[in-house]
Specification:
This is Reverse transcriptase zinc-binding domain-containing protein. By secondary structure, the protein is an all-alpha fold. The protein is about 50% helix and about 0% strand.
Length: about 90
């Protein structure tokens, strides 16, 4: 199961790229435009078909941003489970 959200799905590449709500805002910036009007069984093929330099940049930026968010959430979960800090008000997008 994806430990970053509460969707109760495996943390697959599809989940990471298209589903996980933790990354929805950056998904809008970097990925959404490439999968408009594409069915869910075609979106991975469509997105990973490298037909533009900008798409590679967008994919890179999505991954970098998503992994920062992911690390933040994992660290936060660790802090909370250890009862060390409550950092709910920290804005991880800065
Ligand atoms: Zn998730």
């Amino acid at each position: 199961m994806c430990t970053i959200c509460n969707v109760m799905e495996e943390e697959t590449l599809e989940h990471f790229l298209f589903v996980c709500p933790a990354y929805s805002s950056i998904r809008l910036n970097y990925i959404k435009k490439y999968i408009i009007n594409v069915t869910s069984d075609q979106r991975l093929i469509k997105l990973l078909k490298i037909d533009a330099k900008q798409k590679v940049k967008d994919l890179f930026n999505y991954c970098v941003s998503a992994l920062k968010i992911r690390a933040f959430i994992v660290n936060k979960q660790t802090f909370v489970s250890n009862s060390v800090y409550e950092i709910d008000n920290v804005n991880y997008m800065n």
